[in-house]
Design a protein that fits this description.
single chain, mainly alpha, DUF465_sf, DUF465 domain-containing protein
């Protein structure tokens, strides 16, 4: 089983990386789905502003989580 370093102090197996990549893809898909839902809600007259705010908040949470996971997979190392 191959192992490689990810991040500063953590070590990740190839299987763990595959699982993380699959999770990352699910988060990206949810982020794209929220884009569509937000646009549809904005285009609707009299749309539910509370629901729109919730969607936008969730989208920001996803963006942060996606960035965190991407950093775990491929850290930005300044040499």
């Amino acid at each position: 089983m191959s192992r490689f370093w990810v991040g500063r102090l953590t070590q990740m197996t190839a299987e763990e990386e595959r699982e993380l990549l699959a999770h990352l893809e699910r988060l990206r898909q949810e982020h794209r789905d929220l884009d569509v839902a937000i646009q549809a809600l904005q285009d609707m007259p009299g749309s539910d502003q509370l629901q729109l705010a919730r969607f936008k908040k969730r989208k920001l949470q996803l963006r942060d989580r996606i960035g965190y996971i991407e950093d775990q997979i491929c850290p930005d190392i300044i040499a």
